[in-house]
């Protein structure tokens, strides 16, 4: 049995061509200085240089526009930084001297009265009820007071007795005078003694005093009769003025106690409503414009179309220190009873102001750190100046300025806290609002 030939191990230092037994070329490509090798290297270098050139061109082409744009931005920023700050301004105008002012008012009747009893007794009859219209002097109710009637009868009897005693006292006084005269004319010691004359003199004085006492008794009894007659008159409850009954708290048979209004409820409450009194608290800014006799218009908030003419009849002539308002009374004729006492009404005044205020936007107002109210005003060189102003009414979007500004001046809107005095600004007119 023949053995297999031995396997030769490959030399790791040999190339694949040498291991395969291929013939070796005369001009091998592995030579570093061979022309083929140099051509390859030149191609690689050319490609790398071309890529570098293209990359440089691309970088330059991409960088130059950005540099130019950055230069433009920097120039614009520098121009903006050097330019004056732009602010919104508006021109203010004076309001008309004749102004309307609507203020809330409280309506009260021209007259009202709470009716209480002045005599004690029982309600004999009640002739009216709530809502009834009554005239002046009309009987409303009647009180039955038998004890007052009896006291009146007794006072009248005492007066009659005193009147009857007066002639008797005068007769006694006359008799005493005559007797004394006769005693004096008689010769003392011949029928008449001096003692009798003295006694008769005393009798004359006594009877004269009785006459005076009787006269005084008559006056006392006359006063008593007059008092009870007056109390008897109070048994009839009479309307003091024309009006309407707004409250009734009695019924026939009720016991009424006299002269205790703090513990006894009123019998009737009556109001006169043909004319209403409307009281208005006028603010201080308009207080000097209120004059007696001035016309006003009154209406209800829920019915603006129906208006009622009125007139200022009186004022408190002094402001309330707590509210700084002037209490004003406006009388409004109400013949058809269209308005009722207790209503909350609107009162429109027309004021003729001596100095017309200037109207500014609310956003133009600046409150300084010391609390002063100011506005920013650009001068002719467009430098900011702050003026202290006195405000009037605040309408929300707009505010009245009483002093500190003139008609036609320009103010800065939204000045903010970063706009110190002396800053040069570029005024931009406030655009006018357009309707929707």
Describe this structure in words.
- With 436 residues, the protein is α+β, with helices and mostly antiparallel strands.
- Among the domains are: 87-96 and 356-429, conserved putative lor/sdh protein from methanococcus maripaludis s2 fold; 146-230, Helix Hairpins; 272-352, Beta Barrel (Elongation Factor Tu (Ef-tu), domain 3), CATH 2.40.30.
- It contains five helices and 22 strands.
- Strand 12 (303-319) and strand 13 (325-333) form a beta hairpin.
- The radius of gyration is 59 Å and the shape is rod-shaped.
Task: For this entry, give a set of tags.
Helix Hairpins, alpha+beta, 436 residues, Elongation Factor Tu (Ef-tu), domain 3, disordered N terminus
Q: Which series of helices and strands comes N to C?
A: HHEEEEEEHHEEEEHEEEEEEEEEEEE
Strand arrangement in the largest pleated sheet: 3-10-13-12-11-14
Average pLDDT over all residues: 82
Assign the structural class, choosing from mainly alpha, mainly beta, alpha/beta, alpha+beta, or little secondary structure: alpha+beta
Indicate the CATH class of the domain at 146-230.
Answer: Mainly Alpha
Query: How many angstroms does the end-to-end distance come to?
Result: 119 Å
Number of distinct helices: 5
**Gyration radius, in Å:** 59 Å
- Provide the CATH architecture of the domain at 146-230: Orthogonal Bundle
CATH topology type of the domain at 146-230? Helix Hairpins
Largest sheet: 6 strands, antiparallel, barrel
What are the low-pLDDT stretches, counting only 5+ consecutive residues below 50? 1-30
Q: What is the total tally of β strands?
A: 22
The residue fraction in helices comes out at 25-40%
Strand content range: 25-35%
What overall geometry do the principal axes of the alpha carbons give? rod-shaped
């Amino acid at each position: 049995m023949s053995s297999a030939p031995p396997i030769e191990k490959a030399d790791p230092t040999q190339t694949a061509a040498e291991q395969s037994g291929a013939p070796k070329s005369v001009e091998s490509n592995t030579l570093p200085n061979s022309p083929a090798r140099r051509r390859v290297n030149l191609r690689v270098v050319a490609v790398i240089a071309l890529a570098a050139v293209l990359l440089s061109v691309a970088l330059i082409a991409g960088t130059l526009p950005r540099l130019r744009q950055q230069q433009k931005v920097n120039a614009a920023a520098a121009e903006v930084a050097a330019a004056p700050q732009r602010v919104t301004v508006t021109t203010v105008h004076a309001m008309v001297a004749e102004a309307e002012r609507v203020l809330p008012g409280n309506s009260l009747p021209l007259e009202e009265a709470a009716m209480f009893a002045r005599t004690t007794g029982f309600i004999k009859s009640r002739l009216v009820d709530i809502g009834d219209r009554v005239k002046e002097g009309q009987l409303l109710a009647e009180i039955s007071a038998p004890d007052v009637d009896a006291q009146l009868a007794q006072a009248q009897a005492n007066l009659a007795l005193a009147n009857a005693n007066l002639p008797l006292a005068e007769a006694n006084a006359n008799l005493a005078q005559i007797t004394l005269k006769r005693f004096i004319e008689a010769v003392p010691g011949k029928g008449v003694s001096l003692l009798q004359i003295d006694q008769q003199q005393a009798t004359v004085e006594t009877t004269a005093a009785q006459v005076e006492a009787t006269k005084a008794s008559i006056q006392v009894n006359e006063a008593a009769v007059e008092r009870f007659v007056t109390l008897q008159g109070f048994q009839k409850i009479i309307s003091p003025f024309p009006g309407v009954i707004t409250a009734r708290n009695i019924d026939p048979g009720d016991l009424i106690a006299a002269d205790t209004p703090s513990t006894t409820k009123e019998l009737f409450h009556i109001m006169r409503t043909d004319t209403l009194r409307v009281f208005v608290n006028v603010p201080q800014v308009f207080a000097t414009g209120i004059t007696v006799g001035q016309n006003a218009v009154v209406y209800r908030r829920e019915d603006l179309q129906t208006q009622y003419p009125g007139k200022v009849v009186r004022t408190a002539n002094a402001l309330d220190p707590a509210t700084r308002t002037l209490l004003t009374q406006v009388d409004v004729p109400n013949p058809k009873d269209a308005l009722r006492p207790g209503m909350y009404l609107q009162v429109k005044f027309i004021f003729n102001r001596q100095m017309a205020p200037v109207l500014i936007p609310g956003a133009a107002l600046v409150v300084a750190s010391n609390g002063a109210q100011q506005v920013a005003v650009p001068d002719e060189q467009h430098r900011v100046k702050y003026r202290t102003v006195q405000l009037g009414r605040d309408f929300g979007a707009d505010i009245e300025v009483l002093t500190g500004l003139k008609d036609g001046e320009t103010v800065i809107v939204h000045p903010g806290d970063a706009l110190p005095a002396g800053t040069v600004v570029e005024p931009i007119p406030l655009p006018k609002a357009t309707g929707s």
